[in-house]
Specification:
The protein is of the alpha+beta class and about 240 residues long. Helices cover about 35% and strands about 25% of the residues. Helix 1 (about 85-100) packs antiparallel against helix 6 (about 230-235) and helix 2 runs antiparallel to helix 3.
Length: about 240
C-alpha cells in the first residue's frame, strides 16, 4: 500500500552499506520508522531527505514490516542550523523530545510545533532559550501532560508551587517547586497563544532561566528520559 505524507527526520542511522533507517514525525501518522534503500546511489534522488531535521514530501510503501521510502522530495533542509553549533545541538534536543511522542499525541500539532521551532532556530535570531522554553511547554500540551495553570487541588487559589506529580498548587494546597506570578503569567500566555504570539512575553532574566530549567526537568520527568543532547547543548553555553 502506498502512503503519501510529509515528514521531518528526527533520527537517521545507517543500516548496512547503503541503507538508512529513518525515524520520521508526520502529521497524519505520528512517529514512524522508514527504510531508505541505497541512499546516494540514485543520482537523480537527493540524499538530503535522509538527514536529520530535513522536512520532505514522502511516498512510502507500507508492507508487513516497516515503511519503505519509494521517493522523497525535500521541502525544507533548514541549512541555517549548520551555521551555529549551539542551535544545531538544541535542534537535536528538540528532535529527541519529539521522538518520545506517544500514540495518543496530537501528531499534527506536534509536527507543526517541530517545524516552527526548527525554522526559528535556523532562519531567525530569536533567543534559543526562548525557542526551547516554548517548545517544551507546547510539546507537553500536544502530549496531553501539561496541567492547567490553576491550583489543581482546590481549583481556586493562584499557583505558587509546581509539583511534577500533582500539578500546580496554591500556598495552602500542596508542595513543589516555587514559582512566581511572572512565571505563571508567562505559562498562561504560552498555552493560550499560537505562532509568533506565543513568544511575545516578558519576565526578568532569573525567572526566565529558572522556568526554562523547570520545563526541561518536567519534560525529562514525563518522558522518563535524561537527554544527552540537552546536556551537550548546555555545555556549549558555558
Amino acid at each position: 500500500m502506498d502512503v503519501r505524507t510529509d515528514g521531518v527526520v528526527l533520527k537517521a542511522r545507517p543500516y548496512g552499506e547503503r541503507d538508512m533507517i529513518l525515524t520520521l514525525l508526520t502529521p497524519e501518522h505520528g512517529r514512524i520508522t522508514a527504510l531508505a534503500r541505497s541512499v546516494g546511489k540514485n543520482k537523480k534522488q537527493s540524499v538530503l531527505y535522509a538527514q536529520n531535521f530535513v522536512f520532505s514530501h514522502y511516498l512510502l510503501f507500507k508492507g508487513k514490516g516497516m515503511y519503505i521510502v519509494d521517493s522523497a522530495e525535500v521541502a525544507e533542509p533548514f541549512y541555517g542550523l549548520r551555521n551555529d553549533l549551539s542551535r544545531l545541538a538544541l535542534a537535536q534536543y528538540i528532535a529527541d523530545v519529539a521522538a518520545k511522542c506517544g500514540e495518543e499525541s496530537d501528531a499534527a500539532a506536534l509536527c507543526s510545533l517541530l517545524l516552527n521551532s526548527l525554522y526559528l532556530l535556523s532562519e531567525t535570531d530569536l533567543d534559543a532559550e526562548l525557542i526551547k522554553l516554548v517548545f517544551e511547554a507546547k510539546y507537553c500540551i500536544a502530549e496531553g501532560v501539561f496541567p492547567e495553570v490553576i491550583c489543581n487541588v482546590c481549583g481556586g487559589g493562584e499557583p505558587v508551587k509546581w509539583s511534577f506529580r500533582n500539578g500546580f498548587c496554591c500556598e495552602t494546597c500542596g508542595d513543589g517547586y516555587p514559582i512566581t506570578a511572572g512565571m505563571v503569567s508567562a505559562l498562561r500566555h504560552i498555552l493560550a497563544n499560537e505562532g509568533k504570539k506565543a513568544y511575545l512575553f516578558s519576565m526578568n532574566e532569573d525567572s526566565f532561566r529558572y522556568l526554562s530549567k523547570l520545563l526541561s526537568d518536567y519534560v525529562a520527568f514525563v518522558t522518563d528520559t535524561e537527554f544527552p543532547s540537552l546536556a551537550y547543548y548546555k555545555s556549549l553555553l558555558l
